[in-house]
Amino acid sequence: MTEPEIVIETTIAAEPERVWRALRDPALIRRWHGWEYEGPGGLDDEIREIYIDGADADAEALTLTFQGGDRFALRPVAEGTVVRITRPAKGSHPEWDDWYEDVTEGWTTFLQQLKFALERHDLAERHTLYLDGPTSGATAMELLGVAGITGPPGSAYTALVATGDALSGTVWFRSPKQLGLTVDALGPGLLILAIQPQNEQRPGGGAQIILSGYGRGAEEFEALADRWTHWWDTRENPGTCC
């Protein structure tokens, strides 16, 4: 028995043609999609596999249909462009059911990264940090020390997080399993914290952190990334938010 389709949607303050280019040019896609990693199967290969080789594009209708049936549709509105992702119902492709929630959460993350990169940085170059793993039941928000940030999108926050960094900015988005925060000191940057769903390969679930920074040199961002990675690898208890 299949379940209902899932729809993920947001409005981006950019004209449809600009959003479409950001979905079709691999050099632009890498400025918002996911996170940087090198070598065979790195970010560039991932982008080609998903958006170029794995998608049928209709430039006139402004739609992308991916292998497995996921579909992007762009629609112009007064505020810019509505981007709607429609996911086929769970059970439509049973071989992928164990990762169905992961793909849904991934699309949610990528759509917010696209919106942020277009609206706040006009698809400028960025640096990224990615952390994930099992957490013995604690969420990424609890571990970093931002679980106390409960305001709606647009509300301001300040937090002294578990890495020792004092962060400030606004809530960018909130979903049942994700929290997105802008980070003033990184350009502003975008910090996305996510609860990784439980599945057969990840019975206890996990936590995921993606940090995108703008306007910083590679060495400066690398120093920050090293500090955050050291914290992640040696963490014991959730931090505190203030």
Tell me what the structure shows.
This protein is of the alpha+beta class and about 240 residues long. The chain folds into 2 domains: about 5-120, START domain (Alpha-D-Glucose-1,6-Bisphosphate, Chain A, domain 4, 2-Layer Sandwich); about 125-235, Alpha-D-Glucose-1,6-Bisphosphate, Chain A, domain 4 (2-Layer Sandwich), CATH 3.30.530.20. It has helices at about 15-25, 25-30, 45-50, 100-120, 140-145, 220-235; strands at about 5-10, 55-60, 65, 70-75, 80-85, 125-135, 155-160, 165-175, 180-185, 190-195, 205-215. The strands form 2 sheets. A 6-stranded antiparallel β-sheet has the order 6-11-10-9-8-7, sandwiched between helices. Mean pLDDT is about 95; it is low at about 235-240.
Task: Please provide a brief summary of the model.
This protein has helices at residues 16-24, 26-29, 43-52, 100-121, 140-144, 218-234; strands at 6-12, 55-58, 63-66, 71-77, 80-87, 127-133, 156-160, 166-175, 178-183, 189-196, 206-213. The protein is of the alpha+beta class.
